[in-house]
Amino acid sequence: MVRESEIRRGEVQVEIPAATDAGLIFIGRIHTPWNSRMVAPRQGRQDGPLCRIEVFEPWVRALEGLDRYGQIEVIYWLHLSRRDLVMQSPANDGTARGTFALRSPVRPNPLGTSIVKLVAIEGATLLVQGLDCLDGTPLLDLKPDRRLFSPIAPPQPGDAEVGGDV
Ligand code: SAM
After folding, report:
1. Using a 6 Å cutoff on CB, does residue 114 contact ligand 1?
2. How many CB atoms lie within 10 A of CB 63?
3. In ligand 1, which atom is closest to the CA atom of 43?
4. Which helix H or strand E contains 118, and what residues bound it?
5. pLDDT: is 159 or 121 the higher one?
6. Mean pLDDT across the chain
7. Residue 94 placed within a domain
8. 135, CA 20 to 30 Å: which among 12, 54, 81, 151?
9. In this structure, is residue 76 part of a structural domain?
10. pLDDT at residue 156, rounded to an integer
11. Domain annotation covers residue 126
12. Residue-level pLDDT at 132
């Protein structure tokens, strides 16, 4: 069950310690069809709707070479999430699990990651399929699909002959 910001039976809230400034930079903004957590998918699907990732200057140059990959990893900041639950009840049924045993958006540092299909790069805009975040979600990073950098995973169909060099 999707939450707004309520606390459910079985859940445990804690006082958040003072922030340590990691110096994160929002490098862009993600545009999706979803304006509410009630309608956003729990996880993206690579046959899902086309979404647009807008990259801000001065980071556009950093996209050079990314078009060699058929799938990329998108890291984003789930900016509307609460950050103070250590136990959560995703089903809202009174049973709870630890935050780190879940992919819930509610976490001390609300990072979201998705491996998406890279459909096209048009200047400072990426067209992708496979996201699950709300329209306007801040973008933190883009990386080639991590599976191409693992010694156990062969290249995926649709990927150029690349990988393993960083
Ligand atoms: N795929 C990512 C992951 O596994 O790290 C995120 C998964 S999380 C379960 C996706 C859910 O987060 C969506 O269904 C929506 O309810 C919520 N969500 C999406 N964008 C958000 C945002 N900007 N702020 C807070 N919650 C968001």
Report:
1. yes
2. 16
3. 1
4. strand 111-122
5. 121
6. 92
7. yes
8. 12
9. yes
10. 73
11. yes
12. 98
Helix (H) or strand (E) holding 11: none
CA 95 to the chain's CA centroid: 26
**Omega of the bond prior to 151 within 30 degrees of 0, cis?**
no
Whether the CB of 105 sits within 6 Å of ligand 1: yes
Q: What is the pTM of this model?
A: 0.89
Order across the sheet with 97-98: list the strands.
Answer: 12-13, 85-88, 97-98
Q: How many domains does the chain have?
A: 1
Each residue of 95-137: pLDDT tens digit?
999 999 999 999 999 999 999 999 999 999 999 999 999 999 9
Rounded alpha-carbon distances, angstroms, from residue 115 to 9, 41, 62, 155: 33, 14, 19, 15
Is the pLDDT higher at 159 or at 82? 82
Residue 27: give the domain boundaries: 23-147
Domain presence at residue 13: no
Ligand 1 contacts CB of residue 2 (under 6 A): yes
Distance from Cα 117 to the centre of ligand 1, integer Å: 18
Residue whose structure tokens are 């140059």? 61
**Is the CB of residue 76 less than 8 Å from the CB of residue 147?**
no
Residue 106 contacts residue 96 (beta carbons within 8 Å): no
Task: Give me the CATH number covering residue 123.
Answer: 2.40.30.70
